[in-house]
Amino acid sequence: MVRSILLLSAFAAASAFTGVPLVSRTPAKQSQLYMGGASGYATSLAGKKEKVERVKELLDTSQMIFTVPASSLTVAQSQKLRLAVPEGTTVSVIKNTIMERAVSGTDYETATSMLQGANMWFFIEEDIGGTIKAWNAFVKENGKKDTHSVLGGVMEGQFYDSNGVDAIGKLPSKDELYAKIAGSIKAVPTKVARVIKAPNSKLARAIKLATEKEQE
Which of 66, 69, 110, 111 is deepest in the core (most CB within 10 A)? Predict the structure, then answer.
């Protein structure tokens, strides 16, 4: 009894000296963001049907979908990724059974060949190139290029493997296209001015002739 009291006193003194409670804490497990939950309404028949309908709505507004492994991604990383993708792209981890029912009878039915393991899906409304570029930048920044490569994707009913998706990702993003269009429009007046000012330009001679007639 005396020995127990002495030990407790020693622990208390050590705790007071270090300022850290002598309590062993188990590190928190990394969480994943999944659609629905593990119990309650989410697992009921009505809950599952609702989730299927939500995925179908995403498919209806998507030009392309692709998937990547969802394992070993923290909530913080998942949130960071969601902020990195272009506007109009939805990123979600969806259970295979839900995805299988959602794509059934649609242009995305070939996606069933990728329903293995935990998958994170990208539903892209318009900026396909920008979304794929955002994912590639994310895996490079987080050191997951070797473990989280694109598994495949579907666009206009056609299945694309990882190489196919990467090739599509090399196409200009929406912002890059806008920049090129803006640059082209900006260059038009300059080119027109050069043509008009050219000494041997037919347009220049025509303008000059019309001006002389007006002056007469």
Answer: 66
